[in-house]
Amino acid sequence: MVRLAVRRLEEAFQKWKEEYDVSAYWESSVDVGKYKDPLDKFYTQLPVLMARKEQSYILWGLTCHAEEIYLYTKKHYPMVCRP
């Protein structure tokens, strides 16, 4: 079992080594503090959009941020979230 676990870890490391190297480079970059959350604009614009009560909104599409956007909106504006 241990040998199998070690082998699987080694295979995963070899498979993702290039991605890991790129990620490690950027994560250790001097500019890492300047990283901008891709949802920053959403977080700042949502209150403005919600103030326009005459508007209707829909969350459309499947992105890596869709669930986070839905959960954030549901938490802060539960009256507009319907399945």
Fold topology:
Layout lengths: L1 H26 L12 H12 L14 H11 L7
What sort of overall outline do the alpha carbons produce when their principal axes are compared? elongated
Number of strands: 0
> Which blocks of ≥5 consecutive residues have pLDDT under 50?
none
Determine Rg (CA atoms, Å).
Answer: 20 Å
Helix content: 55-70%
Through-space gap between termini: 44 Å
Please work out how many helical segments DSSP would assign: 3
Q: What is the helix/strand order?
A: HHH
**Proportion of β residues?**
under 5%
Structural class: mainly alpha
Rounded mean pLDDT is 80
Number of domain modules: 2
Task: Report the biggest beta sheet as strand number plus sense, adding barrel if it closes.
Answer: none
